[in-house]
């Protein structure tokens, strides 16, 4: 169930609670038979109504606890999903960081880099980047980050 629907249920329960809970005192006084103008025979009916009110009040409270638990579970599930998304984003950032660092070093235009004079320097750097990225990718896949 999505969080929007749970919040809607929570609001409806709050409205119901606000409508039902204030009646407890009045029903208690009416059911005791001490209210002037109310015959004692009618007070027995008010006792029945007060009992029903008590039952409904308890149900409202239990539903409120249930909906609060559902909301907590929904928020926890959302947090777990966000953590999984953040792991995925971090994994891709790690994969991109390695070649970026290597290319950044080679983009500094140093004169005394041994690989620059070698005919295989450029392909060797590409091969090294591919190997490092492959190793990182496999490690991240094995750990279920990707």
UniProtKB/TrEMBL annotation:
InterPro entries: CorA_cytoplasmic_dom, CorA_TM1_TM2, MgTranspt_CorA/ZnTranspt_ZntB
The keyword Protease is annotated on this UniProt entry: no
Pfam families: CorA (PF01544)
Subcellular location: Cell membrane
Highest taxon above the source species: Bacteria
Membrane-traversing stretches: 89-108, 120-140
Entry keyword Cell inner membrane: no
Keywords recorded for this protein, A-Z: Cell membrane, Membrane, Transmembrane, Transmembrane helix, Transport
Membrane topology listed for this record: Multi-pass membrane protein
Family: Belongs to the CorA metal ion transporter (MIT) (TC 1.A.35) family.
Name of the featured protein: CorA family divalent cation transporter
Organism per entry: Streptomyces caledonius
Taxonomic classification: Bacteria, Bacillati, Actinomycetota, Actinomycetes, Kitasatosporales
């Amino acid at each position: 169930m999505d969080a929007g629907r749970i919040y809607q249920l929570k609001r409806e329960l709050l409205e119901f609670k606000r409508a039902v809970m204030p009646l407890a005192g009045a029903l208690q006084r009416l059911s005791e038979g001490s209210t002037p103008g109310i015959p004692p025979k009618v007070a027995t009916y008010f006792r029945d109504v007060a009992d029903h009110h008590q039952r409904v009040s308890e149900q409202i409270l239990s539903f409120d606890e249930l909906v609060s638990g559902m909301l907590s579970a929904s928020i926890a599930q959302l947090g777990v999903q966000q953590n999984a998304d953040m792991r995925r984003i971090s994994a891709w950032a790690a994969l991109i960081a390695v070649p970026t660092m290597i290319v950044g070093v080679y983009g500094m235009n140093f004169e005394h880099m041994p690989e620059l004079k070698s005919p295989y320097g450029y392909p060797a750097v590409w091969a090294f980047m591919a190997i490092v990225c492959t190793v990182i990718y496999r490690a991240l896949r094995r750990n279920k980050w990707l």
